[in-house]
UniProtKB/TrEMBL annotation:
InterPro entries xref list: Allantoicase (IPR005164), Allantoicase_dom (IPR015908), Galactose-bd-like_sf (IPR008979), Ureidoglycolate_lyase_dom_sf (IPR024060)
Gene Ontology terms describing biological process: allantoin catabolic process
Official protein name in the record: Galactose-binding domain-like protein
Family: Belongs to the allantoicase family.
Domain Allantoicase, residue spans: 48-124, 144-282
Superkingdom of source: Eukaryota
Gene Ontology MF term list: allantoicase activity; ureidoglycolate hydrolase activity
């Protein structure tokens, strides 16, 4: 069991109810990360599996086998297999001798029955951009990053911080238990997929509207160890900064000329975060790409404009935008917490009437009006 402790959980079938979600997990999280075209798949060296029959006591699958293959073009061909016996309501860990790269795995159960979870452990084979100075998310799970330590993950696992997208609800973020201690804080240490020069960070509190942390602090260090020891020197790259509910927070990091391998995120006092993204470069841009001092001195001062992603929160003072993720709090005849939308059904449930409340400022006066939109 300890064999898998420092390896990335490549694949975890969380629910057999939604096959589209499983496909998304398969194609976006792990050994089947989608890059560019849908038929391009990244292989991953696999070291073991966990076939979990928790809560299936008497109706569990009696035997199982796992097949794996390498098929970048998404047309897997399966070969021979060997059956193994399973026990009721138990975890079954299996390792493989050779650390080969695979793109697909298939779980077979005999003759029938239930399996609670199927987990695949290993490391990610990353296809890095050719340009070392390309800005990438160094903390993305698909780039080989991993959570190596955390203070608490009572409600939701810290590994969720490294997943792509903004998730579906609070269950797929990182949430710690409440604390009433004075000056309490929780923390998580992330080993970056590759050492690099940090540029900026994004801390997302999507769906955490009453249980988000008050503030956050980011530190970084360089270490060859999986988990930095007490001799490691941590540098503050982001001072303690205020956080808000259900929002993407962009922060410019300091010490951008130093190379780091780990980041330490501390939240105050506790709560939940959806995602942590650390953008940086594997190598600083070449100095030859910069203009010479003589040319710079002859030109006018350069005006720098900072572009930020268009989110509902940033556009809220001017009106409403449609978020890029589902709003699960919306139910019939109720109001959406995020977008202030009132939804009613029409045409026997085949269409939805979405009533939005817009704000316009005319000659300095705030005017409210309603607009009805029919969504087929």
């Amino acid at each position: 069991m300890s064999t898998f402790c420092n390896k990335i959980l490549l694949l975890d079938f969380l629910s057999m109810k939604d096959t589209s979600y499983l496909l998304k997990m398969l194609m976006n999280v792990v050994g089947c990360t989608m890059v560019g075209k849908p038929d391009v798949i990244i292989p991953s060296p696999t070291i073991g599996f966990d076939i979990d029959t928790t809560h299936f006591n008497g109706n569990h699958a009696s035997f199982a086998s796992v097949e794996a293959c390498y098929s970048p073009k998404n047309d897997p061909k399966h070969g021979d297999y060997t059956e193994v016996a399973l026990d009721p309501t138990s975890q079954h860990f299996f390792s493989i001798r050779e650390s080969s790269s695979f793109t697909h795995v298939r779980l077979n159960i005999y003759p029938d029955g239930g399996v609670a979870r199927f987990r695949v452990y290993g490391t990610v084979s990353v296809q890095w951009p050719q340009d070392l100075a390309t800005l990438i998310d160094l903390a993305y799970l698909g780039h080989g990053s991993k959570v190596v330590a955390c203070s608490n993950q009572h409600y939701a696992r810290a590994d969720n911080l490294l997943l792509p997208g903004r998730g579906i609800d609070m269950s797929d973020g990182w949430e710690t238990r409440r604390s009433r201690e004075i000056n309490h804080s929780d923390w998580v240490i992330v080993k970056l997929g590759v050492s690099g020069f940090l540029d900026h960070a994004e801390i997302d509190t999507a769906f955490y509207k009453g249980n988000f942390p008050e503030s956050a602090l980011l530190e970084a260090c360089y270490s060859d160890l999986e988990i930095p020891n007490e001799n490691s020197t941590w540098v503050t790259v982001l001072e303690r900064s205020k956080l808000s509910a259900h929002k993407q927070h962009l922060f410019q990091l300091s010490c951008t000329d130093k190379k780091f391998s780990h980041v330490w995120l501390t939240i105050f006092p506790d709560g939940g975060l959806k995602r942590l993204q650390i953008f940086g470069r594997r190598q600083l841009p070449s100095s030859t790409s910069l203009q010479s001092p003589s040319i710079i001195s002859q030109t006018s001062p350069e005006i720098v404009l900072t572009a930020e992603p268009l989110t509902y929160e940033s556009f809220a003072p001017y009106g409403h935008v449609i978020a890029s993720f589902k709003e699960p709090s919306v139910s019939p005849f109720m109001t959406s917490i995020t977008c202030n939308l009132r939804i009613t059904f029409a045409n026997q449930g085949t269409a939805r009437n979405i009533i939005t409340l817009h704000r316009l400022s005319i000659l300095g006066k705030l005017t409210l009006y309603q607009k009805m939109i029919r969504v087929q």
